[in-house]
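step=encode ok
step=design start
structure_in=
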């Protein structure tokens, strides 16, 4: 590795961190606070929109933060709702425990979401989970049932961490947990590239890379073995459930994942975006926001 390449990588990271700070400033009118999970992990929470509106809780994916949802939080059609975002454990400004059990035990992630719902007094929220966020929702449903929510949307959500549903990228996941900083950052960069069929602009990608750099290395090592109780969660759910996947997803196998979810719960509805990869809410935000808005309107009036 040449010194110039290292300087280039660190330079991109510095730019991303600056953008991260700027993005945080853009939400200056929102409310920031913390919620403590049952095991003591402190979770960073943010609210926007109408505090008296029906609550929507957004759950981001691996290496992300609440900033992933900017295109949804700023969309006028969602401003009548109470918009709640939080950084998952090991991510963003939330606590980063070092014990592997804090991440491999899927119940911990479910308890986090339950703590958010309870502490915010969010009555019958609609849950929206991207990628890893889908696994969090499934674990929540398995542990707590669906009586406390109005519905849920899985956005290229992880149904199960099984080879028939997850695309193998062993070199990328190996590099992401490498102790060498350059290798680690290159692995995270490669992972982020795989999130998109339509690659984002340079500023957005730098922001996402800064997001990734904040994520715990301990979490990245352990989360690959996270337990996901999709069978226990999805099969018993009676509230509306919608799956939105990009057909070009290079991380999660869209059609097998949808098929597995529907085998567990035939009432699940699905939409496949032919031109999107793993992040349709960023790749086709107008279409995604329209579909999400329609689902929320139906779920909260049910």
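sequence_out=
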């Amino acid at each position: 590795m040449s010194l110039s390449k290292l300087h280039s990588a660190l330079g991109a990271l510095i730019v991303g961190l600056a953008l991260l700070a700027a993005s945080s400033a853009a939400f200056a009118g929102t409310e920031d606070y913390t919620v403590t999970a049952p095991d003591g992990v402190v979770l960073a929470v943010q609210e926007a929109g109408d505090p008296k509106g029906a609550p929507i809780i957004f759950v981001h994916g691996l290496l992300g933060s609440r900033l992933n949802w900017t295109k949804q939080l700023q969309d006028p059609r969602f401003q009548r709702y109470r918009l709640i975002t939080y950084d998952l454990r090991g991510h963003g400004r939330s606590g980063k425990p070092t014990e592997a059990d804090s991440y491999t035990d899927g119940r911990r992630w479910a308890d986090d979401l339950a703590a958010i719902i309870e502490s915010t007094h969010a009555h019958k929220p609609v849950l929206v989970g991207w990628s890893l966020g889908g696994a969090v929702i499934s674990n929540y449903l398995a542990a707590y049932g669906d009586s406390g929510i109005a519905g849920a949307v899985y956005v290229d959500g992880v149904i199960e961490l099984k080879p028939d549903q997850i695309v193998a990228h062993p070199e990328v996941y190996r590099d992401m947990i490498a102790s060498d900083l350059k290798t680690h950052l290159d692995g995270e960069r490669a992972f982020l590239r795989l999130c998109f069929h339509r690659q984002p602009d340079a500023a957005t990608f730098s922001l996402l890379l800064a997001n990734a750099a904040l994520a715990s290395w301990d979490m990245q090592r352990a989360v690959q073995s996270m337990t996901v109780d999709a069978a226990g969660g999805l099969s018993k759910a009676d509230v509306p459930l919608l799956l939105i996947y990009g057909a070009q997803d290079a991380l999660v196998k869209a059609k097998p994942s949808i098929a597995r979810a529907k085998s567990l719960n035939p009432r699940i509805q699905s939409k496949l975006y032919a031109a999107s990869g793993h992040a349709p809410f960023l790749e086709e935000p107008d279409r995604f926001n329209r579909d999400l808005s329609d689902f929320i309107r139906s779920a909260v009036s049910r």
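step=design ok
step=annotate ok -> The CA atoms of residues 152 and 159 lie 13 Å apart.
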